[in-house]
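yo

u said u wanted the structure for the complex thing, so here. seqs first:
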Amino acid sequence: MRSLFWKTLLPGGGNLTSRHPLRLNVGFLLHESVGFSRNFVFDHTAVLVGGDLQVGDLRGTVRFTRTTQGLYAHGRLHARAHQTCVRCLAEYEQDLSVELDDLFTYPPAPGADPLLQIPESGILDLNPLLREHLLLAVPLQPLCRPDCAGLCPVCGANQNQTRCHHRETAIDPRLAVLKSLLSEE
Ligand SMILES: [Zn+2]
Ligand SMILES: [Zn+2]
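structre next:
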């Protein structure tokens, strides 16, 4: 982590420290009257979210508004995550987009969702909630591009890069098994 460049306090934000960009100091908002809002700007080259989810280019703005129950957070964050394409097995950067539309309660109430509570300290840790949102944004079948041509079933060549001669004659591998069974008779 030492080699990464962290942006320090950003305009309009209360991002606590550059080392913990997702820990927000929202204490000052809790002293404001209902309806008061403030934007928190995120612009980080690389962030480890929730201790195990590495994302790059985390950017966006989240608006926190004081309500009678706590703080309402609304905004959109974009990030990139390293993925492996299910078709061609190439490594690529997947764009992720998450919408925050959450009410964080204050004071913290026993029994309420711990991810959606602001502790007495006024330091809101967005790590666990953002981690959940980001994981849900990762496609179940990651593709390097929507029209990824995948690997040739015969020679294994990446058909996005090379055009092997099997391409035109390639048949479904399940049919190939059937064909070989039939030819044995
Ligand atoms: Zn692919
Ligand atoms: Zn081939």
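The pocket of zinc ion (ligand 1) is lined by residues 85, 87-88, 90, 143-144, 148 (CB under 6 Å). The radius of gyration is 24 Å.
cya
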